[in-house]
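Input structure tokens:
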């Protein structure tokens, strides 16, 4: 709960994902990220949300993760996509390219 209230919570969760070696720490960081992006009082810039979306996809396709961590990361990706569906950025709809984004990251892994 402290990370949700922390102004640097987003960065700390990302650092926990990068450095955490246990599935529990990965799950905790991902669950906290879902809460952070879901809070109405948290208005992240669109570029920051795009960065999180891309980070989540990259993390999913480059790590060997437990199924419950994968589930949490997919929930985070879905939440970011849902909340950003109506947002445009530089004449593009970055949260509506779900299939293209997943294919791009999946081919990068293969």
């Amino acid at each position: 709960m402290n990370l949700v209230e922390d102004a640097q919570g987003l960065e700390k969760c990302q650092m926990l994902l990068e450095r955490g070696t246990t599935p529990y720490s990965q799950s905790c960081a991902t669950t906290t990220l879902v809460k952070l992006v879901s809070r109405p009082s948290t208005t992240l810039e669109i570029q920051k949300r795009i960065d999180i979306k891309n980070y989540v996809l990259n993390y999913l396709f480059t790590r060997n993760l437990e199924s419950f961590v994968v589930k949490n990361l997919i929930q985070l990706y879905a939440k970011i996509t849902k909340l950003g569906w109506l947002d445009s950025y530089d004449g593009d709809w970055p949260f509506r390219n779900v299939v293209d984004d997943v294919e791009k990251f999946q081919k990068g892994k293969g």
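Residues 2-109 form a domain with the Serine Threonine Protein Phosphatase 5, Tetratricopeptide repeat fold (CATH 1.25.40). The mean pLDDT is 83.
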